[in-house]
Structures are given as C-alpha cells and as structure tokens.
Amino acid sequence: DEAIALGKRLLNRELEPFGITYQDISENDMIHLLSENHLEHVDFLFQEIGLGNKMAPLFARQVVAIEKLTLLESKYIVSDKTNPLSIKGTEGLVINFPKCCYPIPGDPIHGFVTSGRGIVIHRQTCKNIAEYKNHQEKWIQVEWEADIDRDFQVIIRLNSSNQRGVLANVAATIADAGANIEKVEMMERDDRYAYQKFTIDVKDRIHLADVIRKIRSIKSVSQITRI
C-alpha cells in the first residue's frame, strides 16, 4: 500500500535524530503507541501518516517519550534537517502534483502534508504557497530523485502570428522534441496575433528547455512562456 510505505518513510525521517527506525520500537511500546492513538494495527498508524491525516512528528514525539530517547550528536540533527524526502513521481496517490504550478523534475520544490491526500508537491515559486505560511508544521523538505522515468505535465503559452499552418508547425515541433501534447487551448486571437496554451508531457526541466528552444526557432512564434 502506497500510504503505508510513505508513512514508514516519514516516521523514520522523524526518528533519525534519535538513532532509531520504527523497526527498533519494542512490541510492547508499539502496542502502547497504538492504544494511545486508538489504532488497532501498526499498518493503520503508517497509513494515517502517509495519507496526511496524522503528522509524523507527533508520533515520533510519542515514541521518544515512551522509550525515553535522547538526541544523538548534533551532526545527526543537522543531517536530518538537510536530508529531504526523495520524490520519484511514481509513489501513487499519496504524492500529488497540483495543477496550480505543475512541478516537474529540476524545479525547486516544497512538500505540504494535506489530510487525505498525503504530500502535495509545489514549485517554490507557486503563488499558493503563501496560503500555507501559517502552517509550518505541515511543510516537509523534499527533493527529486536523480533517476526518474516518467512524464510530467506542464503548460506553456505561445504568442504567434495569426496565419495558416502555425498551429500545425508548433505541434510538429513539440512532437519532434519528444514531448506529447495533452491539450491545446486557443486563448485569444485577432487579425494579426493568436495566443494559445499547450499542455504537454515532458521528462524534466532540461527536456522542457529543449522543447521551448525548438519552438522559439519558429519565425511566426513571437513569445513563449511557461505558466
């Protein structure tokens, strides 16, 4: 189960400064922890964490109190704070990529723990991040894994001259760059100019930059921006 796997990772991340993992918690202490939280099975605990219904730091504090643990040397604490959760994009429904900012590998990102949705990944430049500034306890450091093999959606906006064949030329250029077009929207047009939005699939920022570079080589395209 994806939520259980993510819950284990999140709890272990919080326990790391104390030199233990969830596997090190004694059976009696785990039973006590489950009882305190009205949970019948340890998998339910991990599932609640993975789905964002319960916060991993809360359970970690309970474990620390039960087992009377103390922090390790400061080097471990520093390591924990600078050791983000790795995101691959194949974790399933417990890792979500919102349509407000369409993050792709290579983007600087933040993670936000959301009840029922697990971790929602935002670009650091996303306008919606301001809404969460008063909930620092739900933020989690995340980073992209080095080896990611899947496509991510991104939106680009084009300004071009309004003439026959431009749309077909742009579509062919996107395909030649190895990207797939999911959706095309005609935003506005007049006698001289046309404005379109393309939702496309790319591998990462390097791939997107290549797509944009090739579209810019089309003489009829005057401007292209990522939304």
Summary tags:
7 helices, alpha+beta, 3 domains, Alpha-Beta Plaits, single chain, 4-stranded mixed beta sheet
Task: Explain what you see.
- There is one protein chain.
- The chain is of the alpha+beta class and 227 residues long.
- The chain has three domains: 2-81, no CATH class; 85-144, no CATH class; 152-226, ACT domain (Alpha-Beta Plaits).
- Helices cover 33% and strands 26% of the residues.
- It has seven helices and ten strands.
- The chain has helices spanning 2-15, 27-36, 42-50, 56-67, 74-81, 166-176, 205-216, and strands at 85-87, 95-96, 109-114, 118-123, 139-140, 142-144, 152-161, 180-189, 193-202, 221-226.
- The strands form three sheets. A four-stranded mixed sheet has the order 2-4-3-5, with no helix packed on it. A four-stranded antiparallel sheet has the order 8-9-7-10. Strands 1-6 form a two-stranded parallel ribbon.
- Strand 8 and strand 9 (193-202) form a beta hairpin.
- Helix 1 (2-15) packs across helix 3 (42-50) and helix 1 crosses helix 4.
- The longest helix has 14 residues, at 2-15.
- The two termini are 34 Å apart.
- The model is unreliable at 72-82 (pLDDT under 50).
Structural class: alpha+beta
* Ends distance: 34 Å
- What's the overall average pLDDT, rounded? 87
* Biggest pleated-sheet summary: 4 strands, mixed
Radius of gyration: 23 Å
Number of domains: 3
SSE string: HHHHHEEEEEEEHEEHE
Kindly state the number of beta strands.
10
Please count the helical segments.
7
Give the strand order of the largest sheet, numbering strands 1, 2, ... along the chain.
2-4-3-5
Q: Please bin the fraction of helical residues.
A: 25-40%
The general outline is elongated
Percent of residues in beta strands: 25-35%
Poorly predicted ranges: 72-82
